[in-house]
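Hi R.,

As promised on Friday, here is the backbone we talked about, encoded as structure tokens. Could you run it through your design pipeline when you get a chance and send me back a sequence?
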């Protein structure tokens, strides 16, 4: 039995869910609703697209929440995700007017939504620990003059500043069960490419204070499998990655983000250069 009568009915249900989340509603305008509707019209079957889309995004989550309401189900994971996002936007109201951020949270491609939620979960944790939190601090690579920005900048009550670049690589486990270390090399390679592209090989200008790379390991399937089956220890891998950090980066934080939990941040390991 179909949950929605047609695409218009689906979009009406999604709009009714948005009413319950005033901050998310600010992010999603009529133009976005129309764009999503056109996307569903172009799909071969809109309900199938919403339940089996290759990416996890805000549209999927809103549609899932609408299904729960239509079928009078107990609030599930979709509502927890929306509650987390709503709360984090309330913590950082400046993001409601930030056009690049709004673009990231509404982007339906690849892992933009989950990556942004990862960044927000870390920012919310740091804010609740008493740090001042700012987003997108600009800096410059000294060697080639390239302009960059770092995701988060935090400051404590003593004026100590730390800049944090957040990265959550995705490595899917196509065959399910894998050797515990099978994804160590591709994971390390992805992170190395990311950090070297962001910070280069030499010094940087415009970042006063320590610089950390924060790596969200949630979307590395082999790690999740190994954790559950073997209680895997990645100490050696993490130490190797810390030793290979560029000159401009002072340390590396490993964590997980579970957007279906509140709080969603789970600490793994922090390694600072000697």
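Update: got your reply. Pasting your designed sequence below so it's all in one thread:
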């Amino acid at each position: 039995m179909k949950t929605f009568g047609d695409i218009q009915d689906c979009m009406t249900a999604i709009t009714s869910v948005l009413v319950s989340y005033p901050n998310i509603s600010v992010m999603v305008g009529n133009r976005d609703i129309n764009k999503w509707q056109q996307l569903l019209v172009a799909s071969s079957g809109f309900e199938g697209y919403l339940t089996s889309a290759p990416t996890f995004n805000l549209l999927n989550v809103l549609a899932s929440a609408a299904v729960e309401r239509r079928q009078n189900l107990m609030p599930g994971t979709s509502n927890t995700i929306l509650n987390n996002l709503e709360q984090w936007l309330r913590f950082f109201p400046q993001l409601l007017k930030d056009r690049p951020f709004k673009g990231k949270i509404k982007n339906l491609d690849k892992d933009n939504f989950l990556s942004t939620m990862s960044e927000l979960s870390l920012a919310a944790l740091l804010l609740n620990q008493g740090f001042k939190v700012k987003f997108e601090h600009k800096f410059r690579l000294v060697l080639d003059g390239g302009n960059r920005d770092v995701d988060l900048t935090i400051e404590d009550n003593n004026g100590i500043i730390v800049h944090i670049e957040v990265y959550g690589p995705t490595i899917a486990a196509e065959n399910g069960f894998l050797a515990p270390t099978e994804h160590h090399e591709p994971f390390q390679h992805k992170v190395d490419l990311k950090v070297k592209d962001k910070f280069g090989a030499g010094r940087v200008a415009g970042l006063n204070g320590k610089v950390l790379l924060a790596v969200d390991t949630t979307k590395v399937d082999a790690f999740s499998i190994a954790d559950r089956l073997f209680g895997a220890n990645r100490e050696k891998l993490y130490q190797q990655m810390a030793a290979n950090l560029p000159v401009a980066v002072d340390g590396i934080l490993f964590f997980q983000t579970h957007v279906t939990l509140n709080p969603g941040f789970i600490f793994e390991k922090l390694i600072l250069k000697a």
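One thing I noticed while checking it: The chain has a mean pLDDT of 88.

Thanks again,
M.
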